[in-house]
């Protein structure tokens, strides 16, 4: 599963919320061998009925009761081998009292006739309504993690694998797609019956059904059909977005040492999908928002990563199933790491290194701002809470560290062994360790203990000095401990790793490295390296393969050389970060030069970002050149950095990007968004002009996923004191506004709320209260995101009632974390925030002064 399409910040410190408890798989009455759903859909009434037949091979005799998961269904009858059974049903669990009781090895067929009316989860109907008359009529499912029970009765946990079969009757004009092979179709009056068969075992959460008026685009790999299903008008976008799928199937078949295991691979793009994608066995569902038009394809690589992620799950997740949610990192970590592997294959090593760095950062932000937890834990309230940055991004980084420890060749051997020996089975983390040990002889338990079974990562500080007399390089490595770590047993919090360190020399403009390796395991260690001459730069953790944070405290000259010559792009990025901490015109010069000379776009992006952090007017000239960069991703970073420096020149430049446009949606959208950021620090009349420009964007720039108009809405929200801006935003929260634009308008109500008049604050709260009653998952997530930023106790009330009423565990969790955040906002933070605003103003004045001072100093030095 992938949830890249929504994200919000939070600040609670414990992963385990009140009510969290250990979770275990239930006892097993027997092996489920087959599940057969025979369904008839009534799409206009958002209902369906049919029979679910489960073939069970009892594990022991004398079982007299079966308990199945089944939520909010209507159970009409239960039969076993054609004999009516007594049962009771409380809307949550279905208890069947077996008559006769089981006999070991004697299979039974449990046939449950049932119906469902307007299901809230599991199976979703999207239909046009008065606000959205053009919305396509579709039916789709989402089972992970424990939602299949909302559309059929089952033993709903991933420890049970079985074959499955879905026969479904739909009106003639629709296509119905499901797992496995289409074994039969049949006309039946106005309707058509589709009969799908999944002959390889899989868990209930991967059973799926998607129904719609789709265009069907055929591709193939090795004789296996590869099909893309999209709305009819999106056929070109479909090829553009998913067209690399056959190459990816080939790549992952090789990479995992196991030929793609299913008779087909389908990807169905559906409307209003609540995740980025879902890897149902042989039939992935994707959000239709991932479909790229020609312009979006220029610099959107997320969709390609999404396609790779869900495809990799066909092995990691579907072929090899995690036995319990607590081990879900095995699949999510690998699917996330597969994005890196595919990036390396398709775009090269530098791109892959940068991709990995961004994954690491995404986890580190969660660890810092939200909570720290072991990747593997069974203590939670609902399994869905585990689907966070620890599970995905940190899990991905762990796979990369396994590769680092083993080396590429042994890593491949270990992964092949893991896949081959566990295909069509369930696994836990221990099975991965065993497969590695079996294939390579290496025991990686120590790595897992540090990164998987406990929370955190090392935070290093590295100091360097050169002793010219004895020709010794002195490196001091400190592990910085978090405040609360210091109280406990420090040795438990420290990491024990072998870290490679290299010293770099430059011959004929080319770097040469001398490599060492040290064991870093104490809170502070000093290492001495005898060298024949003074190195130009130092590379700590060569290749940057270990998940960590690092502060480089090297002299200016070494950092400059590292930025220019270190072969590893991540090291060059760290050098740029360390340079900015030093500040000054010299650093502006060095970075401005790097923005032009640096060969890799990812480093240029980071250099632009770092330039934006330097509070000197002189940064402008260096940055402005970057707008000519041929890579749109760099131009976007430049625009964002120009937004940070908030000068008149930067405002004018952003305005020209908005007016003249850019080849990339994202560059243009960032400029639109930056306009409000800078205008917010200017006078009222200047804000008025900015609003006029944004109004023009809102009127003229509708289009792909509403990226540009979303930029305008975000832009407006930065002008927190403006009533006109608020009124405009409120207008776009109305039903009928295109979904992505509306969701963004809802989210930014929080941003703009903090400096509005009491009357306007009341209007915002009123609107959010109304919106919180809408049941659509993404609307609720946006409402929570907005409320979490507010600074009034009334927000807490709305959040609490949302938490009480929502059927969704993710919304509930977000809402509860938001309550804590608002409490913090209205506490001492409010005074602090006012101070911070004052400080921002002073900083701006200071920036002008310091910029002039730097110029004077530079002149003085020159003369
Ligand atoms: Zn996933």
Summary, kept brief:
This protein is of the alpha+beta class and 863 residues long.
Q: Could you please describe the fold and organization of this structure?
A:
The chain is α+β, with helices and mostly antiparallel strands and 863 residues long. Helix 20 runs antiparallel to helix 21 and helix 23 runs parallel beside helix 25. It starts with 20 loop residues before the first strand and ends with a helix. About 1% of the residues have low confidence. It binds zinc ion. Zinc ion binds next to helix 3 and helix 4.
SSE map:
Elements: E1 21-22, E2 30-42, E3 47-58, E4 65-69, E5 74-80, E6 83-84, E7 86-89, E8 93-97, E9 108-117, E10 123-126, E11 138-141, E12 162-171, E13 175-178, E14 181-188, E15 191-202, E16 209-212, E17 214-221, E18 224-231, H1 235-242, H2 245-256, E19 265-270, E20 277-278, E21 283-287, H3 302-313, E22 320-322, H4 329-347, H5 349-369, E23 379-380, H6 390-406, H7 408-422, E24 425-427, H8 429-440, H9 445-451, E25 459-467, E26 472-479, H10 483-487, H11 490-493, E27 497-507, E28 510-520, E29 524-530, E30 537-540, E31 549-553, H12 556-565, H13 569-582, H14 585-597, H15 601-613, H16 619-626, H17 632-645, H18 648-660, H19 665-679, H20 684-700, H21 707-718, H22 723-731, H23 739-753, H24 758-772, H25 777-788, H26 793-805, H27 809-826, H28 829-862
Parallel strand pairs: 2-12, 18-19, 19-21, 22-24, 25-31
Antiparallel strand pairs: 1-23, 2-3, 3-9, 4-8, 5-6, 5-9, 7-8, 10-11, 11-16, 12-15, 13-16, 14-15, 17-18, 20-21, 25-26, 26-29, 27-28, 27-30
Helix pairs in contact: 2-3, 3-4, 4-5, 4-6, 5-6, 6-7, 7-8, 12-13, 13-15, 14-15, 14-16, 15-17, 16-17, 17-18, 17-19, 18-19, 19-20, 19-21, 20-21, 21-23, 23-24, 23-25, 24-26, 25-26, 25-27, 26-27
The chain binds zinc ion.
Zinc ion binds at residues 1-2, 309, 313, 332, 335.
